Predict the 3D structure of the following.
Amino acid sequence: MKPPLLSSLLPQEIADALDLEPYRGRQIFRWIHQKGVQDLADMSDLPKELRQRAAHQVRIEPLETVQLAESQRSAGTRKAVFRLADGETVESVLIRDRDRATLCLSSQVGCAVKCSFCATGLSGYKRNLAPGEIAAQASAMLAGVDLDGRKPNIVYMGMGEPFRNYGAVMKSAELLMDPNGLNIGQRRITISTVGEVNGVRRFAHEPWQVRLSVSLHAANDALRSVLVPLNRKYPLAELRESIEYYILASGRQITFEWTLLEGVNDLPEHAKELAEFMDGLKATVNLIPYNPVEELDYKAPSRKRCEAFRDMLARKGVTATLRRERGQDISAACGQLRRQTA
C-alpha cells in the first residue's frame, strides 16, 4: 500500500500519520496549503529528524508548473499547466476582476463526459485527481499574488466532472476551507456538475454552504442529449427530480450554467423551454457566450443576441446574468481547458 499523500491530509490526519502532537500537524499543513511549500526540506521550523522520518512515512508529490500564460486582452487572467507526479497534466485558471479573484480548479485529468462544445473532452480522460492535487492548484495559482487581504472564490469548473470524483472533491473543499490553510469561506466555493444525478442527491446532505451549479445548456431532451451526452443516462425529468430533492433537503439555491451557441440554443423557443424547466425551482441562470475551440464548429452569438436571450428570460420571470468571458486569447475561458499533450 502506498503511504498517504501529505497534501491530501487535514492537520489532525498529518499528526496521526506521523505520530505527532496536533500543533505539528497544523504547522505542516500551514506550510503546504498556506505557504505553498511541499518539500519537507524547506519547512525550516521543523526538526531535522522529523523531516527525515516523514519523508519515509508520507508521499511528497508537488505540482510542477510547466507553463504559465498571462492574458493580454483580459488583465489579471492567467492559466497554468501543472505536471503531476505521474507525468499527467492539468490546467487551472486565475481570473481577477477589480476587487474579485476567482480560481478555476480541475478535478480530473481530462474528462469522460465529452460535452460536444467543450475542449476538455477532446483530450480524453486519464484519472481522478487526489484531494491534495486539487487543493494544491489553488495555493500554486496564488503564489506571489497580492489580493489585499481578500479571499478568492473557488469554482470547480476546470477539467473533469467533479461528481465523478466525489470523495476527493469533497475532501479538497475541506482542505481549502481549513483555517490553517487558505481558510476559504464555504459560500465562496462552487461545485459545478453536468448532471450526475446521484452526486446532486448526495451533495444535498453535505454539512456546509458550498454552492452548487448545474451545467444545463438545453431544456429539451433531444438537444441536450446532443450537447451533453450524459443526458441519455439521466434525462431532464430525472435531473429535475434530483435538483428538487437538493433544494428541499439543503434549503439552498442553485445556478444553471447555459453556454450560448449561435443558432443552436439561443432562440426564443429555447428561452421558453428553459423558463418552463425552471418553474418553481429556487434557481438563477448564468449565461456564458461560447468560447471558440479550433476543432469544433460552434459559434458564439453576438453580444446583442446574447443580451436579447437574457432579456427574454427576464420577461418570463427568470433571473439571469450574462458573463463577460476572460482569457480566450490563452484558451483559459470556460470550455477551453484541455490536457497539454506536447
